[in-house]
Structures are given as C-alpha cells and as structure tokens.
Amino acid sequence: MPPRTRGGYTSDAPRRRPTGSERRRRVHLREVDPVPDPDPVEHPQHDRDETEEVFEGAPGGPIDRSILRSFHKHVAAKIWLGEDRAPLKLVNHGAKLQLWELDMERSRIYETVHRSGLAPLTSCSHRVASRPMLSAFCERWQPETTTFHMPFGEMTITLDDVASILHIPVTGSMISFPQPLRVDDANALLVELLGTTDVEASRETEQCRSPSVRLLWLRDHFSTITDASSDDDIMFATRAFLLHLVGCTLFADKSATSVAVVYLELFRDLSMVGSYAWGAACLAYLYRQLTTATKFEVRQLGGYLTLLQAWIYEHFPEMFSSPDMSYTESRPRALRWRPHVILDSLQSVRERLDRLQISEVCWEPYVDHRAEHPLPDIAWYSGCLKCGQVVEPYHPERVLRQFGYIQTIPPRPFTPPRPDRSILLEQYWERWTDHVLTDQSRGRRCHYSGSGESVPEYMAWYDRISHRIVQPPQLRSGFTTDARSSLPSHAASTSDTRAARALTLLRLVISGGREQSVDVFWGALNDAHGILAGSDETSASHSTPSPAPASHSTPSPATLPFFSPATFVYPPAASDDPPPLIVPPPPASVAPPAASGPPPPLIVPPPPA
C-alpha cells in the first residue's frame, strides 16, 4: 500500500475535492469570530458535524460530555472518585474597608467617590464569609456554562443580581486594558497618578514582586489627606482611595494583601469614573475566580465574595440566611443579611445541596426591591463580559427561571474570544441592545411567580450533560468503613436519607390539602414511621389500604436526590358522599341480644305533662 502524504492522499492517487463539512472546518480553524453570534439562541460555531469529537461519560455524570468538556479536571470529578479537598481559603477584605473611612473632614473625596457609582461598596461589604458554604457552591460551578449545576438545573449570578445586591452600575463602558502592565510601567503610573517618587514606587513594586501595591501602603500614605490639603494631594488621595476600594471588593485577588496598579489607569480622569460598567467587570472577574477554584489543586478563592455570599442568601434563604430586620429596600440587598459563619462541615453542606429541592429555591428574590431598582434590560444580554484581560461568557438563556420564565433546553454555550481582540468586544458591548434575548427566546412565563418550572424534556437532557450530585452515595454521612464495604448496591439507609424519604411522603400529603380522607393521612404517617424505624413498612401491609397507594410508595434510594413534586401523583380529594357511620361495639358488661327469638319490646317514653 503506498504511503499517505501529509494531506491524507497517496502519492499516486488522484486528489479529491474536500467535502462541505471539511471546508467549514478549515474556515473555522483559520478564522474564528471573536464575538458570539448576534442571535443569542443560535450559535452556528457550535453546530456539530460528523467530524466533531465524541466524549465518553464520566463516573457520576455527565453521561454526555459534549458540554462539560473539561470535567475530568474538575474538583467534583475527583470527589466522586474518593479524593477530597479541604474548604477553600477565602480572600475577604470587608474588615479592611473600615480602616479607611471618609468622614466629614474628607467630604471632597467622598463627593468624587459618590459620583463614581462605587460609594455603596464602602458600606455593603460583609466582614465574614463562610468557607464551607462558598466552597460547596464552588464545587458546583462549571466553567463551560458559567453556571452552578444544581440537582434540578442551572443557576448563576446575573447582572440583575449584581445591580440589586450592590447598587453599582452594570451599564457603561467596558473595562479594558491594551496589554498587561509591566513593572516599569507600573512605577511610572504610580509617579504620575499618585504623586509618589520613583524610589517609593520601585521599592513598593519590588516588595510585591509584581506590578502591584499593598493595600496597607495605600492607607499609610494617603488616608491622612483631608479637605485642608492641597488640590493635588486631594486628587492623589481620591485615586488611591478608589484603587484601595476596588482592590478590597470588586477585584480582590489571591494575594490577599495587594491590588494591581493597572486599575489605577481607570481613575486617571476622575470625572469619567462613573461611566464604566463596574458591575459587569465585577461579574466577569468573579466568574474567572470561580473557574480557577474548580481545579482540584487550587486552595484559595478570590473575587468579591460579598456578591457571591449575598446571592446565596437571596436564593436559598431557608438554608443559610440570617436576615437583618432593620433593612429597608432603598439600600443594597447585601445589607439585608447578617453574614455568619456556618458551623457545618463542608461535607454536610455538600450533602444538603445534593438533597436540595426545587421548592426550596427563591427564584425571584427581588420582587419587593423592584420599586427601587427595576429589572435592568441589560440583564437579558447574551454575550461576553470583560474585565481587563478576563473575558467570560454570560448566558441568561440557561437560567430563565431566575427571570420568572419556564426553563427550556438552552443552546450550546459559546467559547469566549481572546482578550486581545478588545476592540471587537467593546463594539459588541456598546451595541448590547442588539444582543438581548428576544421574546421568542425567553419563551413563556411561569404559571405563578417563583415556581421554577421547566419544559418536560429539560430534566432528561440536564441529567445527561450535568454532574448533579457531588458527594458519592457510598461516602455520605453515617457510613462506616465496615458498613460501606458490605453495603448493597441498592441500599441507602443513612439517617439523612431516611429523613428525606419520610419528609417527602409527608410533604406530598400535606400539599394535597385538608379535603383528603383520614385514611390518606394515616397511610402517610404509617409509611413515614416505617421508614424512620428502619423497617420500610408501608400501609399496603396493613388491613386498612391506602386509597392512593401511588402517592405513598417509597421512592427508590437511587433517585432520592432527584425527586421532584411534579413526578408524584397527589392523593385525590375526598368525595362528596357523607362518611359512613361508625357504631362503637357495646361494652363488655352488656350482653349482646340473642340471635333468635322475638325482638325486645319497644319502650316508648310518656308524653310530656
């Protein structure tokens, strides 16, 4: 057989014309559109052809890895195989903001900060953050979709969440830098915009070993400037304060002590600071930090964790939150909650999320907040978010339930372009009104607010492409080494699983209302007792049958984390016929009447006087 050449043809064989699929593939390799298609629902660069690579499923899911292509590197994949990771170290500077406050003696600085739109950040940052809670949610973040993969579907932090939680602008100019800043350029920027000397700037960047400055250094050099200082000193102190503010909040990096000097360029013209889309840049930066933390070897999480923690409080209030009763809707929603440290272990929080039900989610938490902050139209934008060299996709079509719409199967997520194509990205962002989801793409609204509905085929699709359960069943709480080795493949008799099964039965019967017969309630109580007692007895084994056995059947342990109220048949309401008259038996001291013989005489009381 003659050898094949580099192009795939033999030396003596005639050259054949490439097929249409091959031509499309070659064009795609030579030139990639730097921005997603204007229609956010259809992305032609993701249309599959017969030459696309097929991925095998992963243990515990996803079965179809065409969406989560990098899942084999994900921390959840390692956890399913028996490896575990300690709770992440959190970069939270909420307490440092109180070390540099703007009082009446610094009113000129505060006026500039207020015009910038960043003033809410000075008061809404949480001083503490919960490591187990944030680590457990980080394990559910998927970089390809930029969403949290929950047991019942996808959720994410949207631009609406940013605007409501932080009250900072989400529209405006995209934050972009032409190229990464070098150390020499950082020194020159410090001299020009902060008024430091060359020696001071060089000494500080050398100590940071990067084009960055310490937050402590900014406070020591500029926090003493007051309104009585010169105009130049006030201008330098204002820039230093804004750099310190974004370094403690929006762009907190994993150094935990410093902030990149490149952000100082945004404060060159103080009159233009309010024209930037700070909320969109903050969201892109947090997306990237979550993506980095999904790698098993990473041990730290950066970004503005107040945004992430407040988002969890808003959407899962029954599980984690502690509300502040003095809150008013005119303030940022981050101040609605009292942050606290969860004492549960990471595994405990992980298992609670595995058992989370769709009815436990607050899908539309800002209903009472709409009078102060209506839903921004840019929240429907489908495209890319940018923050300097960070570019992340934004997919509102994957979380329609968070906007009050019925969730449909979303299109394939698009791959973000390279950050060096900033001009095209900025042009695309400036025309964001042309790239919002159309009414047809949004679909139908939910039948009632907060129901979290989805189309019938959504969960079957989601089960194939997602990893819905993080903690492996054989490694859940309550298992011992001996019990785990002898555990049957179908058994899941841990205490938390039994409680979940019992509560499921009771919740279904309670949802049926008070019009149900007594037998329905008796059967559910009997079934719940049997599950909790460990016998798994059901009402079918007793003499009084349940009128709706389908609603009392014990769900399979394999499907316990995935059960949904929509999959159960609720017990029918009682009929209009009157209940049968129950006559109690005569007491033992009274002899029953004879079975034969004449009936006893009828005693008629005398008429009244």
| First-last Cα distance | 128 Å
Helicity level = 25-40%
Mean pLDDT metric: 80
Q: Over all CA atoms, what is the radius of gyration?
A: 32 Å
Quick structural gist:
The chain has helices at residues 20-30, 75-80, 107-116, 121-124, 131-138, 159-166, 183-194, 198-208, 215-222, 231-248, 278-293, 305-315, 317-320, 346-354, 422-430, 439-442, 458-465, 481-485, 495-511, 518-533, 549-552; strands at residues 89-90, 141-142, 147-150, 153-155, 212-214, 258-260, 300-301, 383-387, 390-394. The protein is mostly helical and 609 residues long.
What does this structure look like?
This protein has about 600 residues and is mainly alpha-helical. About 35% of the residues lie in helices and about 5% in strands. The chain is built from 21 helices and nine strands. The protein has helices at about 20-30, 75-80, 105-115, 120-125, 130-140, 160-165, 185-195, 200-210, 215-220, 230-250, 280-295, 305-315, 315-320, 345-355, 420-430, 440, 460-465, 480-485, 495-510, 520-535, 550; strands at about 90, 140, 145-150, 155, 210-215, 260, 300, 385, 390-395. A three-stranded antiparallel beta sheet has the order 2-3-4, with no helix packed on it. Strands 1-7 form a two-stranded parallel ribbon. Strands 5-6 form a two-stranded antiparallel ribbon. It is globular. The termini are far apart. About 40% of the residues are buried. Mean pLDDT is about 80; it is low at about 1-15, about 25-55, about 480-495, about 535-585 and about 590-595.
